[in-house]
Amino acid sequence: MALPPLSTEQRRAALNKAVAARKxxxxxxxxxxxxxxxxxxxxxxxxxxxRRMPVRxxxxxxxxxxxxxxxxxxxxxxxxxxxxxxxLGPQQRKRLLDRFATQH
Length: 104
Fold this sequence. Notes:
Elements: H1 8-33, H2 39-44, H3 48-52, H4 55-61, H5 67-76, H6 90-100
């Protein structure tokens, strides 16, 4: 299905919205990386940007967690690599928070 053509104003608004979302994601990842926020705090926020983020990206933002370790944790917790935060079930969310409760 082809996208409808956008007017210049609509395209500019969409680009601005995308830039704002990227900035918010970067701020969230930076806060996690530098210990300003915990995983529990980030998951408790009701932000559309956070809900759309892949869980893997959040884990990779944690200190001492890289791409390989994030994949291993997701496999260990039985969470799909492509799962987004909004798609986490209650048990998956609990296992994730329990896994990182003492570390971060």
